[in-house]
Hints:
By secondary structure, this protein is mostly helical. 60% of the residues lie in helices and 0% in strands. The protein has 2 domains: 5-26 and 158-237, Orthogonal Bundle (Endonuclease Iii, domain 2), CATH 1.10.1670.10; 33-151, Endonuclease III, domain 1, CATH 1.10.340.30. The protein is built from 13 helices and no strands. The chain is globular, with a radius of gyration of 19 Å.
Amino acid sequence: MGITPGALEHLERVYDLLIGYYGEPAWEPDHDPLGGLVGTILSQHTSDINSGRAYHQLIERFSTWEEVRDAPTHEVAEAIKSGGLANVKAPRIQSALHTLSEWQRAKGDTRSLSAFLQDELKGQPLEEAWRYLQQMPGVGPKTAACVLLFNMGRPLMPIDTHLHRLTHRLGLIGPKVSADQAHTIFLKALPPEWAYTLHVNLIRHGRTICHAQRPKCPQCPLLSECAYAGSVNPQETMLPTK
Ligand code: SF4
């Protein structure tokens, strides 16, 4: 799958306009992919504040991820109840930890789960690392991409609801491209050094201006680049889907 020169130029103009409007965020990965994975599972269907609180309560209650894995599920659920859907998320977290433990045992590795996952992800090409994470139960394309981008500092852009809506509207992807498919398209098409900034700025834009309902097009810095607002021809700008 390639990208047409016109589409890349369109993407570059969007990237530059967003930096002009929102600035360039600092990319400071913490290199804690297991903490990031658990945090991302906790963030599903809740606010950042609630999931952050649940995460802190979880690591206050348990000293290691091995303890979380082996604890009675109702105790894990109790610790994360402030994040919502605790009875769904607790078994999901434990399931991911059990799966990772099986992979670790199969390799005869005896270090902590955190150290094991960090090395596993460091040693793999980007797309393989992304697919590796998705083999864990409850980990989809977006969660896997979040862990790689935010925790490992690897350039794969997570496509959440804001990015999916915005990249459609801008004409960067075709109208029938799903969020899951969009991950692969941007993985192959996006210059790696743009991934973090573009992700963060598109989320900012989706939250403040390009809302799902009634986007504020007249005040949008991307108006001249937007297929939805009629300023550009979508046929000339879409990234190819295959
Ligand atoms: S012009 Fe409107 S639809 Fe297009 S990106 Fe801006 S706010 Fe969204």
